[in-house]
Amino acid sequence: MHNIKEIRTDFENFKNQLKVRNIEVDINEIKKLDENNRKLIQKKESLESEKKDISKSKDESLFKRSKEISKELDTISNEQKQIKLELDTILSSIPNIPHKDVPIGTDENDNVEISKSGEIPSFDFKPKTHYELGEKLNMLDFDLATKTTGSRFVFVKDKLALLERALSNSFDISLDLLKRLSSFDLEISFFSLSKASFF
Questions:
Q1: Which residues, in sequence order, are CB contacts of 34 under 8 Å at separation 6+?
Q2: Higher-confidence residue: 148 or 60?
Q3: Cα Rg, the chain, nearest whole Å
Q4: What is the distance between the alpha carbons of residues 22 and 105, in angstroms, rounded to a whole number?
Q5: Which end of the chain has the smaller Cβ count within 10 Å, N or C?
Q6: Residue ranges of E strands in 52-129
Q7: What is the largest CA-CA distance in the chain?
């Protein structure tokens, strides 16, 4: 998720950088939510400070005001949480800023070829892509994967799945070797809090 503190330094630049990816954002809405969120946080902190001072003073004549502050804090906290949620929802839906060298384009056809290495072989037939071969050999299933997990995913099957597992196992063997050479080991869970995926 984008950091609002970084966006805040130059809202227009953030908006222009996203245009490279053909993405339009309502920068005024982001500004408004950010401003409202910060105002409510400041108001909340001010009330909390006032309540703390009342508590320290032990002045019974101010107890009524302390109760009023508690109610105000509840209202402000709920409002601030809602605004923060709206802001986070917008920011988490915006894709990453592209690198400055990325050309402006609508799809992969607008990419710029930087270099070419080796000789491209010529064939007397049209070569099939990896996914065409995978589907023809019944080793890749895009349709079922799309229905199950969404677009741009694939299920690997049969001998290709065995090959993938073999490569994974060879990686495990390398890890075992590293374990013998190192006293530190760490396994990361595949499950995490939703907000952890933004870091």
A1: 4, 7, 8, 87
A2: 148
A3: 28
A4: 7
A5: C
A6: none
A7: 95
Cα–Cα nearest to 160, from 134, 131, 129, 142: 134
Residue 162 CB coordination number (10 Å): 12
CATH top-level class of 4-93: mainly alpha
Whole-structure pTM value: 0.59
Q: Return the domain boundaries, the chain.
A: 4-93, 128-181
Q: For 52-79, what is each residue's pLDDT tens digit?
A: 998 888 887 888 898 999 999 999 999 9
One-letter amino acid for residue 113 of the chain: E
Beta strands in 74-168 (DSSP E): 140-141, 155-156
Tell me the torsion sign for CA atoms 59, 61, 64, 66. Answer: negative
Instruction: Return the DSSP state at 113.
Output: -
Cα torsion for 32, 34, 39, 41, to the nearest 10°? 150
